[in-house]
Structures are given as C-alpha cells and as structure tokens.
C-alpha cells in the first residue's frame, strides 16, 4: 500500500510559458518524494462545454474527469483575463459541475499574478459551489512584496531565488498537511 499523495496540477493558461505554468513546474521540481505530481497536459483538448453533450463519451472529458478522480489534492494555477477566470479554466470546471469529481476534494489555488484580484474570488465561489474543499492556507495571494513567480524567470530560476524558493517550499509544507 502506497502512502504517496497524488497531486494534480492544473494550469488555466494555454500559453507555453505562462507565469502559472512556470509556477507549477517549479512546484514539480520541489515536489517531495512522497508525492506523485502531475501537471495536467490536455485542457486544450476539452471541447466547449455544452450541457446537451454532458453525457457523451468524449475521450478528453473522460481523461479530465479520471485525472481529477485519481487526485488526492488539486493545485490550480490560473490567470485572470478581463477581471475574470480564464476561459480554459471555466470550460474545464463546467465539464465537472454535474459529475462531482471535486466534491470534498482538497483544492489549492495560489494567485501567482500580482495584478490579478477578481479571478481568485470567482474561483473560490465556484469551487465552493462545486463542493470542493478550498484550502485557504494553501492559496496565497502574490503581491509586489511577496511574489511567487518573477516575469521571465524559469522554474529553476524560481527555485534558485533566495526569496521565492522558501515561499514555494513553505507552500509544499502546507500542501502536505492538507
């Protein structure tokens, strides 16, 4: 029997080098040996949500739901677009409203952008409505004084940064307690 925690990391941006993806990659590099950490690779494959198709047998929807079902904890990192949740994140969440994969699931969603304010609150409301166990202690807000990422910094550079690396390590400690 394995005591390893399955952490599914989900990036709400499709940009190849988004701040959110670099944050998730840095967290992957720091992941303790007791964690199976996976960055979900296929949000772009999800079709646009249509309630009439919710019961269909779509491969991408099945894979998304199965990945969430296997996770012991979900780590979301999503940008804010036009004062709201990114379309890709909203679409992914719409596909699981009725299927229940987030019910009682621990969810952390750090806000890594110092400019984002509205999306974090929207995600809190949406995830709570979906029955997710929102982990406030694992969902810090970045600020100019306490950033979680730096523009243009690679995942490795974030780990090498004297101020950011300890914040990411502390977040892992919080996640392991969840």
Provide structural commentary.
- By secondary structure, this protein is of the alpha/beta class.
- It has helices at 19-30, 59-70, 87-94, 118-129, 155-160, 164-177, and strands at 5-11, 35-39, 73-77, 80-81, 84-85, 106-108, 133-134.
- The protein starts with a strand and ends with a helix.
- 34% of the residues are buried.
- The model has no long low-confidence stretch (mean pLDDT 92).
Please sum up the structure shown.
Helices cover 36% and strands 15% of the residues. With 178 residues, the protein is of the alpha/beta class. It has a 5-stranded parallel sheet with strand order 2-1-3-6-7, sandwiched between helices. It has a two-stranded antiparallel ribbon with strand order 4-5.
What's the N-to-C terminus distance? 20 Å
Largest sheet: 5 strands, parallel
Class based on secondary structure composition and strand pairing:
alpha/beta
Count, helices? 6
Instruction: State mean pLDDT (0 to 100 scale).
Output: 92
* Beta-strand residue fraction: 5-15%
H and E string: EHEHEEEHEHEHH
> Would you count the extended β strands for me?
7
Low-confidence stretches: none
Question: Any idea what the radius of gyration is?
Answer: 16 Å
Helix % is: 25-40%
Strand order of the largest sheet: 2-1-3-6-7
**Molecular shape:** globular
């Amino acid at each position: 029997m394995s005591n390893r925690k399955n952490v599914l990391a989900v990036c709400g941006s499709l940009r190849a080098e988004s701040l959110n993806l670099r944050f998730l990659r840095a967290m992957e590099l720091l992941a303790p040996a007791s964690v199976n950490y996976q960055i979900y690779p296929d949000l772009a494959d999800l079709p646009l949500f249509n309630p009439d198709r919710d019961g269909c047998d779509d491969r991408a929807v099945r894979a998304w739901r199965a990945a969430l079902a296997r996770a012991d904890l979900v780590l979301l990192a999503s940008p804010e677009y036009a004062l709201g949740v990114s379309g890709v994140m909203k679409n992914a969440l719409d596909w699981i409203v009725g299927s229940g994969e987030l019910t009682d699931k621990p969810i952390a969603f750090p806000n890594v952008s110092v400019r984002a304010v509205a999306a974090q609150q929207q995600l809190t409301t949406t995830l709570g409505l979906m029955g997710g166990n929102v982990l406030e202690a694992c969902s810090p807000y970045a600020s100019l004084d306490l950033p979680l990422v730096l523009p243009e910094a690679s995942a490795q550079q974030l780990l090498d940064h004297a101020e950011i690396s300890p914040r990411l390590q502390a977040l892992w400690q919080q996640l392991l307690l969840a």
